[in-house]
Amino acid sequence: IDPSHVTRLVDSARRSLEQAGEPGHDVRLVGPPVVTARSRLYLLGRIPPTADYVLKEPLAGDAAVDTDPPLSARAQFEALKLASAWQGAGSAVSRPVALLEGSGAFLMEHVSGRSFTRELRLSVARPADARRAVATAGNCLRALHEHGRRSRTEVGLHDLAEEVRQVADAVLRPVGSRLPEAVEEALVQVPATVVPVIEVLKHGDFVPSNLIVTGPGHLTLIDPVLHDVGLPEDDLARFLSVLSSETVFVAGAVVPGPARRRRDLEELFRATAGPTGNDPRLLELRLLGQYVVRWVRRRGLTRLPEHSLPARMRRRLVDTHMRQLLVEASQRLAGLH
Hints:
- The structure is a single chain.
- This protein is α+β, with helices and mostly antiparallel strands and 337 residues long.
- It has helices spanning 3-19, 73-84, 116-121, 127-147, 157-171, 181-188, 232-244, 247-250, 256-273, 281-300, 309-334, and strands at 28-29, 34-35, 39-45, 53-58, 91-93, 96-100, 105-109, 114-115, 149-156, 194-201, 211-215, 218-221, 229-230.
- The strands form 3 sheets. Strands 1, 2, 3, 4, 6 and 7 form a 6-stranded antiparallel sheet that branches. Strands 5-12-11-8 form a 4-stranded mixed sheet.
- A hairpin with a 7-residue loop joins β3 and β4 (53-58).
- The longest helix has 26 residues, at 309-334.
- The N and C termini lie far apart (54 Å).
- The model has no long low-confidence stretch (mean pLDDT 90).
């Protein structure tokens, strides 16, 4: 990162803080920038190493196969302001502080706590903590959807099933994979029925990495999107697909313990986040689509040399696990007809 660019951003942050009525003349970087595929994050504070603010600079570019491209700084800042008005019991939103006009970045309050993803990875040693965090996440998403109800419309179940097949053809075929036969059969059996649905203003990226556990039964959202109106099942399926494919659960393909813990957390999230008021087949269909794109994403999330033996063994384990997730969802779907 160009040092002069960082200096300009920090200077802009200081001015914006003072304009927002907060002392900002002495804030400085308190750590190296954190760069992700979608943004750069700069921790700012007055007394290092304590961080008071996060300066977020969204990055343009291609999105991963299982995500949409990031929104602009202004759109993300407005989403934070909107979500701040919808805080529910046990949940909060990182406070939006200032939009850095002309800099393509914005400031939000730094939130101290534990990574939600870390809670999942420690679920073997601390299952009660993981269950509490997942239940709070479900309650949080349900509250967001209740505030964000927008309209009623209709969807065709067969059309949704066809979307799953089209996504699978587009992303699995190039990596030499395909849907399991049981999944294909379940999709074929989906009737050409049109059902009424409730649409909501979707969170858009409700995943463990966008949640901070701030205490027992409390969490903070750090990256709501709130840009598109659509099926609430899209948010539920996105969260479940990421939760179910966490590395700690991938071993469930070969040993029973992780699989039991995963299913327990999945059922808990479904119970606390729903029901949405829509046909239950919608969630299974949306989940099948999310599992497909998550499968491809998980295959590529490794630092191992692509053609090394450990990398090939890892891909086989991921493939087995994701096929199992797809089959489980197809069985639930078939049981709903």
